[in-house]
Amino acid sequence: MLTRAEFERRYTAMPNLKKAELIEGIVYMASPLRFEPHAEPHADLMGWLLAAFQNTAL
Fold it and tell me: Are 27 and 7 a contacting pair, CB within 8 Å?
């Protein structure tokens, strides 16, 4: 388990780190997410939904 002082020392020593949290002595960090692998499927889904909406009678 990590102390708050040690966590802050390590966090300060890593300027490229965007976000990390210390919760009850355990460090939690978000998984890195690249734009393209997320954006491309999202754009495809939005296009499919738009086409489905335009071709559906209300």
Answer: yes
Please state the domain count of the chain. 1
Question: pLDDT band at 50, cuts 50/70/90?
Answer: very high
Domain span at residue 31 reads: 4-54
pTM for this predicted structure? 0.51
CA 45 to chain centre: 19
CA dist 23 and 45 (Å) reads 36
Identify which has the larger pLDDT, 58 or 5. Answer: 5
d(CA 13, CA 16): 9
Q: Which residues are bridge partners to 26 per DSSP?
A: 23
